[in-house]
Design goal:
Layout (H helix, E strand, L loop, with lengths): L12 H6 L1 H9 L13 H11 L3 H14 L6 H14 L3 H13 L4 H17 L3 H14 L3 H17 L3 H11 L6 H11 L9 H10 L3 H6 L4 H21 L6 H51 L1
Length: 305
């Protein structure tokens, strides 16, 4: 099994969802992986022991201790890579990416350096920094001298587009990755991504305007059918109370101020909620397609093992 180091679950549920694709990358695509960095050094052995116990912060300290006392070690690149993996598990993305960059700079072999760049891009995808991940992967995919590394970069580039909802870029990257295979899985992935042009997205602007004209209609448009009656009912009650004050001539009454405040709050809230609901619908639609593609890729991976 490849040892990119992101195989275990992390504590944050949000980060765990963000890393769903990255675990897949770790298990299939990222080259020969990291060899054990613990042999022959007490600090590295302690770091691995602490990491296995889930104490990632303490493990990072031990790795930094090794770097401090062994600045010319031939294992430096590997140690920095391991450090970046552990920092990622701590959700310290800035430090993880800095360590990943050091693992590239301290690497002597071009092929391994390119693999490290893919690993760095994996961390960038996990932290949802899709633009920089794409730049890193394009660099490897176009300029690496090693065909196998270029192919893996295309695969991760496809995943980057997948999770950034950049469907055409993802489709093109996977086409390059699967070029010449003529497999059913490749055709299935391409067909799934072609569906991106037919996704039923909702316009947040249209939802907001519909709720401006009639609170609750924006929620109906966005597919939140259970929210629509609530928005209609609350706005009807507050509008009726306000109208009662105005028609009764209680222009300066304290009740008018209270009812006006309630009406404005829920009216504005209905508009904002309609906008948010439409965006949430679009995210769920995109995630469903990304999940289908990932499952197909996992199936294809199982067939090639």
């Amino acid at each position: 099994m490849n040892r990119i180091g992101l195989r275990h679950s992390i504590h944050s549920s949000v980060a765990r969802r963000a890393l769903a694709a990255i675990v897949f990358v770790a298990l299939w695509t990222v080259g020969p992986g990291v060899q054990s960095a613990s042999a022959g050094d007490a600090a590295l052995e302690m770091a691995e022991y602490l990491a296995d116990a889930g104490n990632y912060g303490a493990a990072v300290i031990e790795l930094k201790r090794f770097v401090c006392f062994n600045p010319q070690s031939p294992m430096l690149s590997e140690v920095y890579l391991r450090m970046s993996e552990l920092l990622a598990r701590e959700n310290d993305w800035a430090e993880a990416l800095a360590a990943a960059e050091k693992s590239i700079q301290s690497c002597d072999e071009d092929s391994v350096a390119d693999e490290r760049r893919i690993s760095k891009a994996v961390l960038q995808i996990a932290s949802r920094d899709y633009d920089y991940a794409e730049l890193e992967l394009l660099r490897v995919a176009h300029y690496s001298d090693y065909p196998a590394v270029r192919q893996r970069a295309c695969f991760v580039l496809g995943l980057c587009g997948l999770y950034a909802s950049r469907w055409d870029e993802s489709r093109e990257a996977f086409r390059i990755y699967f070029a010449g295979t003529n497999s059913a899985g490749a055709a299935a992935v391409d067909s799934l991504l072609e569906r991106s042009h037919r996704l039923e997205h909702k316009s947040p602007r249209a939802a907001r305007w519909l709720s401006t004209l009639a609170p609750g209609f924006g929620q109906l448009y966005a597919g939140a059918y259970w929210q629509a009656p609530m928005a209609m009912a609350i706005n009807f009650v507050t509008a009726r109370a306000l109208w009662s004050d105005l028609s009764g001539g209680q222009i300066a009454a304290p009740a008018l101020l209270v009812h006006w405040g309630l009406f404005e709050r829920y009216y504005r809230g209905a508009r904002a909620n309609a906008d948010r609901t439409a965006r949430l619908h679009n995210k769920r639609t995109d995630r469903a397609l990304a999940r289908d593609v990932r499952q197909r890729l996992e199936t294809e991976s199982g067939r090639t093992e």
